Amino acid sequence: MTGESQPAARLTLEDVRAARQRIGSYIIRTPMPLSDAASARAGGSVYLKLESLQRVGAFKVRGALSKVTALTAEERGRGLVCASSGNHGLGVAYAAARFGTRCTVVLPENANPLKSSLIAKLGAEIVRHGITSDVRQEKVDELCRERGYTQVHPFSDPLLIAGQGTIGLELLEDLPEVEEVYVPIGGGGLISGIALAVKEQRPGVRVYGVEPEHSNAMYEALRHGGPVPLARVDTIADGLAAKITEDLNYALVRRYVDDIILVSDREILEATFFLLEQAKILAEPSGATSFAGLLARSARQTPAVAVVSGGNVSLEHLLKLRQMQRDV
User: Fold this and answer.
1) Which of 136, 187, 250, 323 is close enough to 155 for a disulfide, judged by CB 3.0 to 4.6 Å?
2) Where do the structural domains in the chain lie, given as residue ranges?
3) Which CATH class is domain 7-58+157-327?
4) For residues 227 and 318, what is the distance between their CA atoms, to the nearest angstrom?
């Protein structure tokens, strides 16, 4: 899936490198070990980029810090607001706490309890509103108009995407011989940044996005030639439950990503518990989706990297997921 487009041209490799300069002292350069268990299961060398070990337990803090470090003092002083299913809110709340500014996070009414509690511990105000991502975004827009907050968009801000792209820089530095990269997709901020950073340096590396089959906003955008709202979103991977992507993300994915792989909830659950039990990696379902996609693609080449995007899952939730796996 390649091609030129104006929105994609708004973001460059130099933007990603600049983001790393701004956020490097705030984040963890996460490990990317060769997983013997994952390699044996896949039939080739598989490395796991463990953003589950990032600050706040997810990659989202990279983009949040990239945005917040680029704001003026006046913009930060107005207070930050974001719509989130959980991990983005954690990233923005962490960034706000580091810079001593107030933060409001709009979460769904059925938000993950663990993520909600972690956001509250960071001092952010939580507003619960609706279920779907588009409804949450409408609430954020309303709060910005009424209270003057500065918004940190969950996936479609160039500064935020540049921050997520720092993962791609690390990935190529740590494994120059990589052949394939698998990245989970919700709204598309993570894969937009990683794909740009990887492809601008190593065009021959194949980058694959992985979406839940019933939360496939990017797949549908590519099929229709632009973002379209999904009629329904239904997945156990709460961090990937986006009803629609945006023009910038669509343009970057169209330009840089080789293919989108759709996986079922059953495959996501299998990947989650394989990583936990065999690879000894705690990943939330959203974070394990990349590995599910790697396994689903039979004609894969190695060495390959699966980006484990987050690990915010409680023991109680894991037990529920195990029961769901038995029932599916």
Assistant:
1) 187
2) 7-58+157-327, 60-151
3) alpha beta
4) 33
The span from the first CA to the last CA of the chain, in angstroms, equals 33
Six-digit token pair at 219? 């797949």
Q: Which of 116, 56, 64, 92 is nearest to 309 (CA)?
A: 56
Is the pLDDT confidence value at 3 over 60?
A: no
Q: What tens digit of pLDDT does each residue of 75-109 get?
A: 999 999 999 999 999 999 999 999 999 999 999 99
Residue in the structure block whose two tokens are 């694959």: 208
CATH class, 60-151 region: alpha beta
| Domains 7-58+157-327 and 60-151 are alike in CATH topology | yes
Residues identified as active-site: 60, 309
Helices (H), the chain: 13-23, 36-42, 60-70, 73-77, 87-98, 113-121, 133-147, 158-174, 189-201, 217-224, 247-256, 265-277, 285-296, 315-327
* Residue 96 · residue 124 · CB < 8 Å: yes
**Which of 78, 236, 231, 83 lies closest to 155, judged by CA?**
83
**pTM for this prediction:** 0.95
Give the three-state DSSP class for 145: helix
Kindly give, in sequence order, each residue whose CB lies less than 8 Å from that of residue 283, ignoring residues fewer than 6 positions away.
Answer: 52, 271, 272, 275, 276, 291, 308, 310, 311, 313
Ramachandran quadrant class, 211 (left: phi over 0; alpha: psi -120 to 50; beta: rest): beta
